[in-house]
Amino acid sequence: MRIGPLAWRIGATLLAPVLPWHLARRARRGKEIASRLPERRGEGADRPSGRLFWLHAASVGETASVLPALQAMAARDPTLHFLVTTGTVTSAALLAQRLPPGLAPRVTHRFAPLDVPAWAERFLQGWRPDAGAFVESELWPNLLAAAARRGLPMALVNARMSARSLARWRRAPGLARATLGAFRLVLARSAEDASRLGLLGADPVQAWGDLKTAAAPLPADPAALSALRQAIGGRPVFLAASTHPGEEAMVVAAHRALAADVPGLLTIIVPRHPERGPAVAEEAAGLSVTRRAAGEAPGPGTAIHVADTLGELGLFYRVAGVALVGGSLVPHGGQNPLEPARLGCPILLGPHTHNFAEATERLLAAGGALRLADAAALAPAVGGVLSDAGRARALADAAAAVADGHADLPERVATALLGLMPPPDPPAETPAEGRRSGFLTNEVG
Q: Less packed terminus of the chain by CB within 10 Å, N or C?
């Protein structure tokens, strides 16, 4: 075994005794589900009969992006079952919300085991998947090494590799080559990602495009949407979507600056992590604030509405006159700008958009989004779009044209992943059937 993989294996094994304490601490903070902590140790396998495909996605965005491909796989092979593993509580909840009723009985969710060799082995021994795929940048050396030892066909789909991650992996080239070598198929989301993955030893790598450009529009419950529209009335709405710490203060400052010039302005803040709702509300001290998680709707006098619930972002993009895509005014790298593009919402982006660099470049080039240099530019941009219906419509139309690309990508990915699956076992023959076919001729001869 190479030095890099061996060092990782030993380090993870030595760390294992303290990980239960770490997991219990996360559970107390709401980042794990206490009753399901054994899953993080690879326990709790309940393998369904028949063929099983394992799909691992880290968090909410990755899970949502791959669902269309999963649905396409299920449609192509009605007997196939799926094990979906994720790393966050919110992604598990999203999966439960988004799975179509006809597909849900064929999907089992588990939290992914931590990357401890014994826990990875226990997980794979219990579930015995026939093939699997990791999504985006999930690279767990011990888990992938265990899969490789079993000869498990694995793919990395919608693969991404940032410049920062490339620099980190290049410090351990042996570990990078061994980890990426576990994948028989690597489908990168862009040519730039493909190049970086190739530098680390992935081979072959194909750049098919970003699954997030082919996702369905975010859903919205019709009754909830009707109630929200009634509560808002005709007020102009500024949405700050999927915000991260530090951005909410910037959004509140922009609201204060605009309030006098945009009569009736309602600002809706959707924090990326809903549990931050109370802290986000505190950022707007002195203004009239409502919180959706507390069962409150935005009334006529509400200035700031904190939408601190899970899986409802589609509601708020549908009622907004303009939206800031969160994670872009702070150095996080930005959230998915194609979500508002599919829902006809004019888009504002801060300077930090490297998580979705290709989609951002296409939107900007097409005139489908406005780039903000910094937080000081937020209020003027919001005011400019809300006061100019023609400009807002032009932004939304241009963004929608960009978002329509790669419509066939989930089907292509589904075909590639099904190609990893071994052929189904032939049906068992009875002795009579064998005699008819000649298979048992020597036995009766």
A: C
- CA angle (364, 366, 368) in 5-degree steps: 65
Per-residue pLDDT for 299 more than 60?
yes
Rounded CA Rg of the chain: 24
Residue type, 56: H
Q: Which CATH number fits domain 222-399: 3.40.50.2000, 3.50.50.60, 3.40.250.10, 3.20.20.70?
A: 3.40.50.2000
Long-range CB contacts (within 8 A, 24+) of 353-358 = 353/328, 354/162, 354/163, 355/162, 355/327, 356/210, 356/212, 357/190, 357/192, 358/189, 358/190, 358/192, 358/210
Q: Please indicate whether residue 443 is annotated as part of the active site.
A: no
**Tens of pLDDT along 25-46?**
999 999 999 999 999 999 999 9
CATH 3.40.50.2000 occupies which residues in the chain? 222-399
Phi and psi torsions of 238, nearest 5°: -110, 125
In 7-79, which ranges are E strands?
Answer: 52-56
Q: What is the pLDDT of residue 325?
A: 98
DSSP state of 88: S
Annotated catalytic residue, options 32, 39, 62, 247: 62
